[in-house]
TrEMBL record:
Name of this chain's protein: Aminotransferase
InterPro entries, A to Z: Aminotransferase_I/II_large, Asp_trans, NHTrfase_class1_PyrdxlP-BS, PyrdxlP-dep_Trfase, PyrdxlP-dep_Trfase_major, PyrdxlP-dep_Trfase_small
Organism: Acidovorax soli
Subunit note: Homodimer.
GO cellular component labels: cytosol
Keywords recorded for this protein, A-Z: Aminotransferase, Pyridoxal phosphate, Transferase
Biological processes per GO annotation: L-phenylalanine biosynthetic process from chorismate via phenylpyruvate
């Protein structure tokens, strides 16, 4: 008998489990389209030039590693605010945004969830159906009841927008709604600017609490274009949460660089909110690590490096779009009869391919092509060397 005798084995994380299976696969042609990571055309995880340049400068004048403030590097937090809300925006100028450095986008969501549990303990949380796997688990573990709002329409291959609005209109006041700011994960379907206006109107009319998850800023249409949705929420006079991740946009996955911003009514309120966010951080991990935040702050704070980052991010964005087109063309050439052009109407890293679980299992077992059972494929892992093989494999299972 031990303290842990009754401890049950937890299920494996579906995506990380897929990675393990991929690593063990001996098929020389295997392709991993499971995990949401951007690879370059050589199938390599990029180390961005802007990151290398910033690190070189940092290494030429090494500094001692004291504790950071609880809310992180000041220059970093300011850079996040400027990126999310706009450097010259009213919320930044008036000081009514409370921003903290976080351990990745996940950390930003978690700090927000724990804070919300204190201020709105009985609220329900709505996430999209489907959503990033961790949204449900994270808000459930923070103590919330989590439900979904309608989002994906499999038949239409797009967003069930009427259902989405109906879900919002049926929600009780105070309900926390987790929204994908851009590049919806897992479907790849975003709503239009005009539809955002309707969502915002519903959120406002019903008194819901928006929590925007911005894990892919710059992977959709551009940094400012993807951030425009934030401006819409500001213009509507709402207060809301935004989590930020630099995992993908800086290819800094393992450095765990992210943030949480809370737009408050005024500067005084932002000060009180910030003090509470700091309590959440202090009692979880005390203060964030230095390196990733310092790199991002150095890049965003230096005009030349910032321009280089924008160029490198644009290259990633453009390459993904090119791969979408190649996938559509390649599937046609491989003999797939059904119209697959919907893949180019999707945006960001992922494509909901519409393939069934059986088809995804066959892709994996017979061809070593790994996507999730839901049919999600990471388009950002396709390249000029593996695309033909993937297209032929898909053609054989559909
Ligand atoms: N939100 C969404 C929608 C994501 O796809 C991800 C990353 N897969 C995250 C948040 C978390 O990002 P991070 O790795 O920076 O914690």
């Amino acid at each position: 008998m031990s303290l842990f005798t009754a401890v049950e084995m937890a299920p494996r994380d579906p995506i990380l489990g897929l990675n393990e299976q991929f690593a063990a696969d001996t098929n020389p042609n295997k392709v991993n389209l499971g995990v949401g990571v951007y690879f370059d055309d050589n199938g390599k995880l990029p180390l961005l030039q802007c990151v290398q340049a910033a690190e070189k400068t940092m290494m030429s004048a090494p500094t001692a590693r004291g504790y950071l403030p609880i809310d992180g590097i000041v220059a970093y937090d300011n850079a996040v605010k400027a990126l999310v809300f706009g450097a010259d925006s009213e919320p930044v100028a008036s000081g009514r945004v409370a921003t903290v450095q976080a351990i990745g986008g996940t950390g930003g969501l978690k700090i927000g969830a724990d804070f919300l549990k204190k201020v709105s303990p009985n609220a329900k949380v709505l996430i999209s159906d489907p959503s990033w796997e961790n949204h449900r688990a994270l808000f459930t573990n923070a103590g919330f009841e989590v439900d979904t709002y309608a989002y994906y329409d499999a038949e239409k291959r797009g967003v069930n927008f009427e259902g989405f609005l109906a879900s919002l209109n049926a929600a009780a006041a105070g309900t926390i709604v987790v929204l994908h700011a851009c590049c919806h994960n897992p479907t790849g379907y975003d709503i239009t600017a005009a539809q955002w206006d309707q969502v915002i109107a519903a959120v406002k009319a019903k008194g819901l609490t928006p929590f925007l998850d911005m894990a892919y800023q710059g992977f959709g249409h551009g940094i400012a274009e993807d951030g425009a949705v934030i401006g819409k929420f500001v213009a509507a006079g709402l207060t809301f949460f935004v989590s930020t991740s630099f995992s993908k946009s800086f290819s800094l996955y393992g450095e765990r660089v992210g943030g949480l911003s809370v737009l408050c009514k005024d500067k005084e309120e932002a000060g009180r909110v910030l003090s509470q966010l700091k309590i959440v951080i202090r009692t979880n991990y005390s203060n964030p690590p230095i390196h990733g935040g310092a790199v991002v702050a150095a890049v965003l704070g230096n005009p030349e490096l910032r321009a280089l980052w924008e160029k490198e991010l644009a290259e990633m964005r453009v390459r993904i779009k090119a791969m979408r087109q190649k996938l559509v063309d390649g599937l046609k050439a491989a003999g797939v009869k059904q119209d697959m052009s919907f893949i180019t109407t999707q945006i960001g890293m992922f494509s909901y391919s519409g393939l069934s679980k059986d088809q995804m299992v066959r892709l994996r077992n017979e061809f070593g092509v790994y996507g999730t059972d839901t049919g999600r494929m990471c388009v950002a892992a396709l390249n000029s060397k593996n695309i033909d093989y993937v297209c032929q494999a898909i053609a054989k299972v559909v």
